[in-house]
Design goal:
Layout: E1 3-7, H1 11-23, E2 27-31, H2 34-43, E3 48-51, H3 60-70, E4 76-80, H4 85-93, E5 98-101, H5 106-122
Parallel strand pairs: 1-2, 1-3, 3-4, 4-5
Helix pairs in contact: 2-3
Length: 123
Amino acid sequence: MKRILLVDDDKALNRSVDILLTLDGYQTLPVYDGEEALQKLLHQKFDLLITDLIMPKIDGIELISKVRKLNSTLPIMVISGQLNNRLVNLLKKQEIQYIITKPINPTRFRKLVRRAFEECDQN
């Protein structure tokens, strides 16, 4: 079973995404800030990280940078309502291939998660 770490300080959104992914058969662990996410990543194995960008303690950009140093192959998906060209370019430099805007479209989101796993399984 694929394990996904969900990181978003919006508890309602995090819960909705958690339910959606659980219904699709994934094992999820929701956390609410980048610092908590980093601690989980240091002690547990995940197959995908889904993170917001704007969060307390450690924001998504800093979290991604730290994760890349710990595990350069972990697939990362970004969900954000604050995307602009500068942020998208910064994410692409961090090799983030999976970016979705808030509010999320559940169908599109589910397809993107499946695609992330399919592409990882091919490599």
